[in-house]
Design brief:
Layout: H1 2-21
Keywords: Membrane, Transmembrane, Transmembrane helix
Length: about 20
């Protein structure tokens, strides 16, 4: 459960970075 939550947070961070990099 903890690993899954961490994975989701990491995924969101990656998406935000890609969005900013545009």
């Amino acid at each position: 459960m903890l690993t899954k939550k961490k994975g989701i947070l990491t995924g969101l961070l990656v998406v935000m970075m890609l969005f900013v990099a545009g």
